[in-house]
Amino acid sequence: MGDPRLLLEAIGVLREELKGFEPSCYSPADCTWLAEELARVEKACAAARLLAGARAVACDAHRKAGVADPARWVARQAGTTRRQARDALATAASLEGCRATRDALLAGEVSILQAAEITKAVAELPGEEAALLEAAKAGDLTTLRDEARERRLASIPVTALHRRQVASRRFRHWHDGLGMVCFDGALPPETGIPFITRVERLAQRLWRGAKHDGAQEPFQRHAADALCAISGGGEAATSPPRTELVIVCDLHAWRRGHAHPGEPCHLIGGSPIPVALAKELSHDAFLKAVLHDGVDIQRICHIGRKYTAHLRTALDLGPVPDFTGKACAECKSTVGLERDHEVPVARTGRSSISNVVSRCHRCHAEKTERDRLAGLLGRKARARAPGAQTQRAKKPASRPLPARRAPPPGGWP
Fold this sequence. Notes:
Radius of gyration: 29 Å
Oligomer: single chain
Number of strands: 9
Shape: globular
Helix content: 40-55%
């Protein structure tokens, strides 16, 4: 058993040292080391604080502090909301069944939010704690959530999964401190993906127009404008119908009516769906169905910058054979994506499935700048900082016409 006096003394020493902390007194290398170590200490302290608070609540010790609601008492200690405090207490209780995660949490290897994600997934996926814990240590919270989601989706029968998705749809709204209208919701993939596709397509058009005019606003503001325009029917009058939903389905599963293990049937950007639902959705005029029968789509190739219709479809599908949809090759973002040639067109790079990847605007600009510095874009290529707005060169003003001479007396001969 540890001596609480030694722990309290160490906490006091650390607090005193941090009071006078000034980053400019340290070298960049020392700041890097300090940031990494303090992150581990921060996660370990948060874990110890949560477990200590959970024990105090279990023993009703919080009532002696004059607080009847345990969530309110924990929220006051952590400086969070009562809802967040209730979630934290639930995580502390679930850690009893995930000892490896509890040990990693106290060691500062994972955060409380990562531990909560692991315990939530383990409740549905027994035996997956070790794999999820490794994913948490190697990545951030987003990486862990993606891994947990993929494992969860793979463990649920596709028909039961779709029933749960439909039963979980929701929408709620409220006002924040500025009086802004905020909302939160969830839609099944077959209705949510077309909705998001329309919003992002219009937002990208607005963003490109603002970029041409020299305006520099975050993409999310244009997405908000796009949402309002679509809600008011604005996009319907300005853009023709386009494919909103893409289904990838194994040809044999399509003919059979149900999929066997290893036969994909899912929505691009969504989750697996029953083959019966895929056939039902295929009657929609705004849906594209890709029946995969083992054809190697990497053979699709086009010289130059132009993209054939088949190549555009192949690029939107994502990597073979998972077909998980396109995402930024570097930061994994799925918003504001642009097509980029790994081998630049200036170096005879082809518009092919093996040479074209998706990148967000910032990663695209950074990669273009790296290519320019490496001399891959030619001598006339100009520097382009990430996020910088490109200005079109103005045409030189036409030379003014010479002044017309006055006619001589008596007129022109």
